[in-house]
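User: two proteins, same treatment. go.

Assistant:
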Amino acid sequence: MERGMERGMERERGMGTSRINPVIHDLRLTTTQRVRGAVLGSVLFPLRIALTALLFLLVWPFAWLAVTGLTPQQREKPLSGWRRWLLHPIIRFLSRCAFFSLGFLWIRVKGQRARPQDAPLLAVAPHSSFLDTLMVVTCDLPTVVSRSENLSLPVIGALLRFNQSLLVCRSDPSSRRQCLEQLTHRLRQQGTWPQVLIFPEGTTTNGKGLIKFKTGAFVAGVPVQPVLLHYPNTLDTVRWTWKGISWIQALWYTTSQLYTNVTVEFLPVYTPSQEEKENPNLFADNVQQLMARALGVPATEFVIEGGAPVTKLGGFSLPFQHPATETVSLLTQTHTGVSEVGAILDVLSDICQSEPERRVSAAQLGSLLRLTDTQTAQRVHSLYTQGDERLLELRRVAVSLAAVSDSWSPQRVLHCAFTLYDGGRKGWLTAQELQELLGALLGQAQLHTDVLHKHSCADTPGQLTLSDLLQLLTAHPTYQRLFTTYLRPREDAEPKKAAPLANGKSHLHKRLGLSDRALPCGARSCNKKRD
């Protein structure tokens, strides 16, 4: 228990120093590197891809033969006999040749891989790219978890059957539950099954920080061997992340190099305490913290939600950067006077007060913000819209800017937001209205807020009053940190206290110094006694 508490505190302290976005990879090439890549790539890329494809075609019949003739019951047991001692080495050798042909000429290994009975689970991080699958070869073809859709793919499907992979349909809750049960069962068989290899981050990152580990494989409560995956190259071409180069660019740039260095480092086996066995979240967090220390990078609280990185605060999803932060930056770059920015917000407040549901285009928003540059107006508009959405609710911009302004107390911001989202001026919010208000306040669409709405209605079920909202966001032990550590992080705060929410937050909004009249809800409409 002491170990779990100590590591939890270390994790919190470590978060305070992390101000990087782990899912953006910016590959910058010099002119010389581009020319060199184009020349070598024109020769190496087609040659290496063709050779790799040929090798995987050679693997196909061996993988098919390994499971041919097995009954469904036999496939539920580990492969044995000639299927194991004859075909396993052949498939591993051909797979290694495939990665050799892609430019991974040497794989440097540090440490020693534990036996399946000593560590049934291998946790690999950071997860950088689809090319990380070379770990399967390095670790002697352990079992992996894959999407069930991949089973129908040529070659890949045969390899998954040979590997006896755990298959899951991510959109099907019953499939996810069944996969977790199968995974837990195999991990607890004391080495009967091959080791299971996972990438606990669940998505690819730039390696500058570890995002929060998924807890699925840690539910079994068995010893795990952490494995670090390094690509010590001058050009970091392998990484394929949420934002950055595409997968085909990553493949092109990687195969255009004469060779790509890779180092696999096996850390000592981590045996969970009784507390960690009973708490998979603690187990996963402590392993993440241990691996982050070994890598020399922060262990962040980021998770991927809707394809974007967010930090969780209770039931809230907080984006890496609040859209109002960039909006304020663009406004202060355009308008030299603070009073002018305040006047703009005063206009927004009057419009929102009289027309709470008014929608504006990028051009109209630019006119209201007094932006003469069309591209800047479109950029600000895009911060609050998704996909092809052309019209934006102006109140979203107003509440968003108010949320990050230090000139207004949280109570007044919430009072004004409540007024704008209280449809019909009925004096309370529905679950849908609360969801929209929180989306504007936090700069990120909020999911699953129905339960929060239900439990926050103190007086009348289904009717969230202003008093309920203030109680929730200013007095709740968890959510009261929303303003102090995320929307308005203090520059002089101790890292430990600001840790979970300090990643990448800008203080540009402090440059506004807005007056009371400038709040985008109008000072005339707010109850000043609530300051």
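Protein 2:
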Amino acid sequence: MFVVDSKSTVIKLTVLELETHLLGKEFSEKTTNVLRENDIDGDVLLTLEENQLQSLGISLGQRVKLVRYIKSLSMGTSHSTVMDPTILHHFESPSSGTVTPESQLWESHLQTSLNDQLVDNNHQMEDLLGSSTSRDPLPFSFEKFSEPVPTASDSNLQNHVPPKVCEKNLTFDVKEILNAHEEGKKIVEKYQADVAMPVTEVDRNTIINIALGHVIRTIGNYYPEASTKQKLAAAIVAAFPQMGLIRDGLPAYTYIYNSATGNAYIDQHLKRMRKAALTPDQRKRKSVEKPKDDARKGKGKSLKKSSPAEQPLSDEYVAECKSKVAWLQNCGVFLENKSKIMEYMDETYEYRRYQIANILLTPTAIVTEFPRFLDVDFGRLIIADYVHQYPKTSDIGTFMSKYGNRLIRLALYNNMEIQESTDAFLKVLVVCVKLMPRIQQAKSQLNTTLQQLVIFLKENTNLEEFVKNKPKHLKQPFLVCLGTLIAPKQFFLVVDFYVIDCGSECSNAFNVLFSSFFAFNTEYPKPVLMEFYQFFEYAVYGIVPSCSCNIGAFVSKLECLPLT
């Protein structure tokens, strides 16, 4: 079936109709959102010029396409577009009431896509919760939807073409939707019994999956409007408040649907559904612009560390810093020198960051040039450099005060074995690693992952010999603990082949470890611990304003639990 674009048809489109129309023309969801939010309908669209589109914040590529499209309409050049079968509604012959080939195609394609292909293609799909390369089975399945897909032969569809669904008027009662589905009904009953119980990953994905199945059947295609996805996300949190993530200025459903990033759970589910049900050509009917680099998308990237300085430092400042650095390189770490060491490290901070971003590209090079990182007050200077970068950072004490008891409660909910320790921080830290979503999906990697965080060695271990022969996979900074998890004695930070004494308390040692990724401009260990450190960025230290949907879901599970 072909749809012909012309000025006379486009000029009559309402704001919402224009949004749907342009999505079908492969304009991005971000662009159509901007047009909708500025009340641009078909009539107004035809009057827009390139500078006006730029003032709306539409990207260059999308502006060029829009201007070209508007000019073609104004010149009377028609555009014919092949209509994706999945966006066809039920077509019947108005006179005879017989089912047309188009309606048979819609009925067959959607029924097969939703009920069979989504299940049969499970094993081919990527891990829904992230970009893990693991081929483990998904933690949920695309269940068959309980409600039958409407067919063109239904009595209430006889002898007419059903009107187009106006998504603006759609509302969702998620519990009602779930109760119509066998698995969904079990979930409703399960969480009604304990409204404070954290929703598991499997249950969360089943909820979203069933709810999206309802949306797809209702609108007749795999591309719901942004407003529909937003309403569905809000309805899910309304039905299950423990899934909400409360943050100032953000809706509680942000990690379930986020129009700014396009990579929250609803969009991830839809992407997998389309992949299972549609051909590659059919999926190309839409494109989504990538969010800006500063949008936290949960794609496995760590927080950006130092970058080359745009402006060179003044000659006078550089000369002054070189003199102070020379003194720092040769001074003894005596009590009478410590205040001057701290003063000079503070005054040379900008010079040091310039050197690290442009010249000193490895931790070894950094430590060689600034050796006081190694031997002052159990890593104090490393923490100081991190605090310089993020002066509004929260204290490491937030981890225990806000999440300590909650992590233990969540572990008990998950029937997880909790190992005791004389160091309460260490005990909870290990529990936190084990509870992270990626670890839950790749439990076979647990021991290797824990080694990237902390390695336990006998108290008489020669650390210099150990670091010379450390396992090859330990490339990023990590902790060494002399003693055992039950009875830890002393902690050290290992950076390249250097060992830094961090004292006897795990809380300080981990604070130094986290700070070292910033002080030494080093990436987090990949792939599993990346998410762990990003949890600390967002929830504990508070140095990023948003997070990936995996971390958002994890934090919401913790924060729905009582503090004590």
